[in-house]
Amino acid sequence: MCGIVGYTGINNVGGILLKGLKRLEYRGYDSAGVAIVENNGIYVQKTKGRIRELDEDDFPNGNVGIGHTRWATHGKPSDENAHPFSDCTGEFAVVHNGIIDNFVTLKEELIKKGHEFTSETDSEVIAHLIEENYQGDLVETLKNIVGMLRGSYAICAVQKDSNRIVIARDQSPLVIGVGVDENLIASDVPAVLDYTNEVKYLEDGDVAEISSNGVHIWDSLGNAVERETVEIDWNLEDAEKGGYEHYMLKEIYEQPKAIHDSLLGRLVEFNDVDFKQYDTRFIRIISCGTSYHAALVGKYIIEEIAKIPCTAELASEYRYSSPSEYLPFTILISQSGETADTIAAAKEAKQRGCKTMAITNVMNSSITREVDEVIYTQAGPEIGVAATKTFTTQLIVLYLIAMELGLNNNKLLRENAQDYRDELRRLPRHVKVLLDQSEDIRKVCEKLVDADDIFFVGRNINYPVALEGALKLKEIAYIHSAGYPAGELKHGPFALLTENTPVVAILVKDHTFEKMLGNIGEIAARSSPIIAVGDHDKELKKLSDKLITIPSVPPMFSPILVNVVLQLLAYYTAYELDCAIDKPRNLAKSVTVE
Ligand code: AGP
Predict the structure, then answer these.
(1) In degrees, to the nearest 5, what angle opens at C-alpha 407 toward C-alphas 401 and 411?
(2) How far is the CA of 589 from the centre of ligand 1 (A)?
(3) Is the CB of 335 under 6 A from ligand 1?
(4) What CA–CA distance (Å, rounded) separates 210 from 6?
(5) Rounded to whole angstroms, how far apart are CA atoms 138 and 35?
(6) How many angstroms does the Cα of residue 342 sit away from the middle of ligand 1?
(7) Of residues 100, 211, 195, the one with CA closest to residue 162
(8) Which of 84, 328, 517, 523 could form a disulfide with 93 if both were Cys (CB 3.0 to 4.6 A apart)?
(9) Which residues pair with 165 in a beta bridge?
(10) Is the Cβ–Cβ distance between 508 and 534 less than 8 Å?
(11) What pLDDT does residue 29 have?
(12) Is 377 in the pocket of ligand 1 (CB under 6 A)?
């Protein structure tokens, strides 16, 4: 979703802004622009389309500037709707991420006062509000106008003849990169890492002023505050492609390491959270997209290992549901920690009186400030829009949590816990075995590339994996696909099965295996091509057009392995179809608006 960069320092700013914007490309965007403070004015260039369409040769020299990549919400992608926006006098330029819910009212009032607007966006009102309310100090002006805004924002503003950038945030990410003789701002850490690995994370309601040699921050009450400077312990290489053609493929291949890192220091003793201090007799997991699928798998894991009733809910639904008298221990899962719906759900759960815990991959991300406890997944930066290694590590954390809860309530015997630990330790090796077979898996894509509709089916703990496989294929290969619990096909979707409707079926040797075989037989009778993923079985081999086997693990751990196969199927299908794998159309890495 939209990206912001800003720089103030001793160097020429134009190239720095473009480099920073490119580092944020993974977030998804449809237009780009920069504003550079030059002698006696502010130069603005903006365009619909890619960053490379900005003409750097035309940039003036300057040491202060802001840049933006836009992901359209209000108003279609166009040159006019691209950021930055200036006020009527051209004294200020502004970029904004988020959504201003009350912009229509604000705009009407500003128009009545004589302001002329050039775009259809909500963001432009901020530039005009600054002009309207400016009384000699941009910091005071911004402090004043953020009180008029309803919605979410990360705002950066520059002013003619000034080396300061003034910023504010509420529910949209913004970090300050702290350098020597230079300071930066960005929506995400990779955009500042070329210059510094020291960052400050702003909190909701903060306003800050950044110049080449200073950072001053005020909280929502207007009090001057210090925000901790955090050292980032990963470098740009970690976030770059490292020889792979796409980030997604690199991230799929990083899974053995990601699993290993997520288990590190947690297997023998799990000290991240002391669950004994909470009432965990009932658990609710809330999240969106792929993280929601991890939540659904988590429900099966927690119910099986710890025998604790658990529900998985979509954040966008939970936040508008009716509160009940139950106050479940509430787990929020978000790779980015910036998903607006999940953050809102965390606030809602807290408001209802629940104890909350986040599972996230991003240190100090917004969600970490909304919850009682945090567990980090340790997957390393994930740049591809399609979530891969973070899903896997979310599951790893859920296994660890379930084991801890099961040991605490005596539903998990110590010797069984030891068996589970051994299984978890072996998972990186099993994933590696599958990755080594990727060429064979790739060949199977021939059966998928020409399809208009594909079904993914599974049962029990692998039902959510079917949902995830279908999501991945839709997202990056643009093929309509639907995940179903296999037992449900006959209640309607059977009508769609033809020889042109491939079915990817997950069958592992658990208590549902025989039922699944029955389902596969019914599908074969409708002539649909069947691609089976799971355990080796003679009968299954006969019934399916292709069987991709996974290393043998107890069924409870099969989702991780089956999912790696489905990731590769989606990746290679999208590759054959020449799709924009890392930046699928219309999508953003983190969805910071509702
Ligand atoms: C997954 O491939 C998607 N890009 C998307 O569904 C994502 O998982 C969802 O937007 C939630 O993101 P989060 O985990 O960062 O909260």
Answers:
(1) 105
(2) 7
(3) yes
(4) 10
(5) 17
(6) 10
(7) 211
(8) 84
(9) 158, 210
(10) yes
(11) 79
(12) no
**In angstroms, rounded to a whole number, what is the distance separating the alpha carbons of residues 95 and 107?**
17
What residue owns the CA closest to ligand 1's atom 2? 386
Q: Report the nearest-CA residue for atom 9 of ligand 1.
A: 289
- Residue 472 has which token pair? 């991945």
> CA 64, CA 7: separation in Å to the nearest integer?
6
Q: Does the active-site annotation cover 310?
A: no
Reduced to 3 states (helix: H, G, I; strand: E, B; else coil), residue 390 is helix
Residue 590: CB within 6 Å of ligand 1?
yes
Which of 350, 289, 281 has its CA nearest to residue 315? 289
Ligand 1 center from residue 142 Cα (angstroms): 32
- pLDDT at 1 exceeding the cut of 70: no
Higher-confidence residue of 420 and 362: namely 420
Any ligand 1 atom below 6 A from CB of 28: no
- Quick check: CB of 289 below 6 Å from ligand 1? yes
Question: From ligand 1's centre to the CA of 345, what distance in Å?
Answer: 15
Note the Cα 485 to chain centre separation in Å.
Answer: 26
For residues 252 and 566, give the distance between their C-alpha atoms in angstroms, rounded to a whole number: 11
Active site residue 156: no
The residues of the chain that CATH labels 3.60.20.10 are: 3-236
Calpha distance 288→318 (Å, rounded): 11
C-alpha 269 – ligand 1 centre gap (Å): 30
Q: How many other C-beta atoms are found inside a 10 Å radius of the C-beta of residue 77?
A: 15
Check if CATH label 3.40.50.10490 holds for domain 241-434. yes
The two tokens of residue 357 are 């815990």
Which own/partner pairs from 274-278 qualify as long-range (CB within 8 Å, at least 24 positions apart)? 275/401, 275/404, 275/405, 275/408, 276/408, 278/329, 278/355
pLDDT in tens, 467-507: 999 999 999 999 999 999 999 988 988 888 899 999 999 99
Give the type of residue at 149. L
Q: What is the pLDDT of residues 288-298, one digit of tens each?
A: 999 999 999 99
Contact by Cβ (8 Å): 18, 56: yes
Q: Name residue, tokens 């309509």.
A: 480
* 3-236 CATH choice from 2.60.120.200, 1.10.10.10, 3.60.20.10, 3.30.70.20: 3.60.20.10
pLDDT digits (tens, 9 = 90+) for 550-564: 999 999 999 999 999
CATH topology of domain 437-594: Rossmann fold (3.40.50)
Question: Which of 26, 285, 586, 590 to probe ligand 1 with, by most ligand atoms within 8 A of CB?
Answer: 590
Please report the atom of ligand 1 found closest to the CA of residue 360. 14
- How far apart are alpha carbons 569 and 563 in whole angstroms? 10
Does the Cβ of 387 fall within 6 Å of ligand 1? Answer: yes
Ligand 1 neighbourhood includes 357 CB (under 6 angstroms): no
φ, ψ for residue 322, nearest 5 deg? -80, 135
